[in-house]
Structure formats: C-alpha cells, structure tokens
C-alpha cells in the first residue's frame, strides 16, 4: 500500500469535489468527474 492520506490530500479532494458538484447533471458523465476528483488519493493509496 502507499503512504498515508494527509490533511492536504483531503482538502484537495474537497476542492475537486466542489468543482464536480458545480456541474452536476443527471444526464451526463458523472463517473468521470468523480474519478477525476478521487484520482490523486487513489494514486497515493495504490502506489
């Protein structure tokens, strides 16, 4: 497993999630936005 998740990582996740929520649409690709928001943390966990 990768290194631990820091407070900075959580803050970045929150910011990226906010950008995702600003353009939330039930007809379009939401999984791509969620993945984009989670990508830095997933890379850190599964390094």
Automatic annotation (TrEMBL):
Major location (coarse): membrane
Source organism, top-level taxon: Bacteria
Keyword Membrane set for record: yes
Gene Ontology BP terms: phosphoenolpyruvate-dependent sugar phosphotransferase system
Keywords of this entry: Cell membrane, Membrane, Phosphotransferase system, Sugar transport, Transmembrane, Transmembrane helix, Transport
Pfam family, one: EIID-AGA
Membrane topology: Multi-pass membrane protein
Record localization: Cell membrane
UniProt GO cellular component terms: plasma membrane
InterPro entries the UniProt entry points to: GatZ_KbaZ_carbometab, PTS_IID_man
Signal peptide start and end residues: none
Name of the featured protein: PTS N-acetylgalactosamine transporter subunit IID
Species of origin: Escherichia coli
